[in-house]
Amino acid sequence: MDLKDRVESASWPECRSSRIVFVDGCFNDSLSDLGAIPSSCAILQRDETAIFYIPPSIIVSSPVQIISLFTQPAISVLRLQILLGRHSHLELVQSIAGEGVAVDYMDIMVDEGAHLRMAEQILPSKKAHLLRFMRATLQRNARLSSFSYSEGALILQRDWQVFLNGEGAEATLKGLDDLSENCQAHTRICVQHCAPSCRSRQHFKKALQDKSRASCEGKICIDSTAHHSDAEQLCENLLLSDEALAVVKPFLDIFADDVSVKHGATFSQPSDDELFYCQSRGISLREAKELWRRGFCRALIDAIEIPSMRERLL
Hints:
nine-stranded mixed beta sheet
């Protein structure tokens, strides 16, 4: 499959005229289509860093898709900065696919009153190594909503840092890893409440089959000046094999008194009685586990705003 076909297969119908394509870390103008992106928005590449800038008070009506293709067996690196001006709105969809070893850096700055909604689908080769780094900084009353889906890789490592620097900032982070075979997906998150009256939500689910591996290390840090903070963290794990392994490490660093903070983790596995109940009604063991997996994943998938992405994952 050539590059054009790979881009077309990765494109969502809602983003046909608003897609930005990177190949091995470099912006590819011929494969991109910027027709539905306002002309006031800027896409620049300086040295090894690409910049996507949304000016103040700009509402981008169409979802914008960023497609990152890694085609080399050697290490490929993408560095991307996303800058949202005051009171601007952007819906961003990112698709990452490739092979070899890929390193993806994303630095997000959301100015006062701006809103960024993100959804990403990570589909690298089963033999790929993908290191994904994201840092987001939110100013006063800014909002960030993020959903990440993956089927894992030989090694998939996410490292996210979110700084709520302005009063009233809000971040919602959700993720779903649907793993099989020997795939792995590891997530490390730190949400830093640096100002009063900020709100954060973390909700991650991991469905594991065969010999897959997953971990989730989540940290909430409430600074001494971040009074009236509201933070929650939850990681749910469904083990569909005795050889699958999931590890959860929640951390809380709280230096203010007047806050509301919650964290939790669950591990579940279909019981023999539940599987027997399904089999007694003509459902095979494999089909029963598949029903459990789909039901477990559906709660997060149903909340995806992009219809074609939601339908494909269901």
